[in-house]
Design a protein that fits this description.
single chain; alpha/beta; 13 strands; binds uridine-diphosphate-N-acetylglucosamine
């Protein structure tokens, strides 16, 4: 007899990368049924379909099509639509990753229906409540029954919030599982040659946080720094749709390109990972990229005043720049040392450990039900 059914939920780009290894590991078990729900928070081909195909992600069973909107509207649409899925499917467990609006909506719907939740990448804290992700993380953790952590500080953060340690499982970093699985293929593509550039000579840039792109003055400061960087070294900048919209609104896009900054469409997983592997340095405000850069050993400069991933600073390649983009102009990729981090649990097998824990939890519930 099977142990039960798990509904996995994905919605935005980073979650595909985090959840793929857990789903793949559970797929290998005959005793667990899986269903995959895509909320549709990200929907453009480059943000969703291409990512899913690169990651060999199974085709989702259900699309909710919630799309873009204000935080309230997007979260509410996902909450309402996912509640209907739960009422129809009645799964034994819900598994969700990360800290995007879809994650919180899903956790709210499941908790109210008393369906247990496993949260992948639990316990990260920036302690910065101006970030929507911090609100999403804290609440999703509070509502989850199993909290999968990837670094020691996550357990400390959860303990400080009074969360029972029996709910916390250190499994490691599932995002790095995806990286280890696909890095060979990504490197073989040598995507830097299309520009045409040499490995190690360029800076790869991604910026999409509201704190850097939504407000005109900060966006202009960022663009000025990138233009100055572009005068000295090659810069590749795959631009997130939020950022493209803001750069167009402020009339800044053409100036960047004239300064030699190569503004690209968002890329699929393999091409982007390939560019990370070939980069001499990375400038970002993304969370996942701080981790991937550390695993690959590429120096990473994070344009934020804080990070929920401090292990990437203490054991990895990450440097926090704060809010001032000025120093970006002085990055010289050829002069920087590359040293891959060896972080416990960032070993390519975190998804398997999470899958084992989910199967064990399903087994324990089944045993209780028949006791
Ligand atoms: C979301 C997450 C953020 C994550 C990021 C990764 C929240 C609160 N934020 O931010 O934590 O780091 O995803 O990419 O959940 N858009 C498109 N096409 C798409 C998706 C979005 O054009 O496929 C545009 C829309 O104009 C939309 C804007 O991008 O309004 C922002 O998208 P949204 O998902 O709301 O937030 P992100 O900035 O992507």
């Amino acid at each position: 007899m099977g142990l039960g059914t798990v509904v996995h939920v994905v919605g935005a780009r980073p979650n595909f990368v985090k959840m793929a290894p857990v789903i793949a590991a559970l797929e290998d078990r005959a005793d667990v049924e899986q269903r995959i729900v895509h909320t549709g928070q990200h929907y453009d081909a480059r943000m969703s379909a291409e990512m899913l195909s690169d990651l060999e992600f199974p085709v989702p069973d259900i699309f909710l099509g919630v799309g873009s909107g204000t935080h309230g509207a997007q979260t509410a649409r996902a909450l309402e639509a996912f509640e209907r899925v739960l009422l129809d499917e009645r799964p034994d467990f819900v598994c969700v990753g990360g800290d995007v609006n879809s994650s919180l909506a899903v956790a709210l719907a499941a908790a109210k229906l008393r369906i247990p939740i496993a949260h992948v990448e639990a316990g990260l804290r920036s302690f910065d409540w101006t970030m929507p992700e911090e609100i999403n993380r804290v609440l999703t953790d509070r509502l989850s029954e199993i909290l999968f952590t990837h670094s020691p500080e996550a357990a400390t953060n959860l303990a400080a919030e009074g969360i029972d340690e029996n709910r916390v499982r250190f499994v490691g970093n599932t995002m790095i599982d995806s990286l280890r699985r696909f890095e060979g293929r990504a490197q073989e593509r040598r995507p830097w040659e299309a520009f045409p550039l040499e490995r190690g000579e360029y800076v790869l840039v991604t910026l999409h946080r509201p704190s850097n792109v939504d407000e005109g003055e900060q966006l202009r400061r960022v663009v000025t720094a990138l233009m100055r960087l572009g005068e000295s070294v090659p810069v590749l900048f795959p631009v997130h749709p939020r950022t493209t919209e803001r750069l167009r609104d402020e009339g800044l896009l053409s100036g960047l390109e004239q300064a030699g900054v190569r503004c690209l469409e968002p890329l699929g997983y393999l091409d982007f990972l390939g560019l990370e592997i070939g980069a001499g340095a990375i400038v970002t405000d993304s969370g996942g990229l701080q981790e991937e850069a550390s695993a690959l050993g590429v120096p990473c400069f994070t344009l934020r005043p804080n990070t929920e991933r401090p292990i990437t600073i203490t054991q990895g390649t990450n440097t926090l720049l704060g809010e001032d983009p000025g120093p970006i102009a002085d990055i010289r990729p050829r002069e920087l040392e590359h040293r891959p981090a060896r972080i416990e649990g960032w070993d390519g097998h975190a998804g398997e450990r999470a899958a084992d824990a989910i199967a064990a939890a399903l087994g324990a519930r089944r045993a209780r039900a028949y006791a």
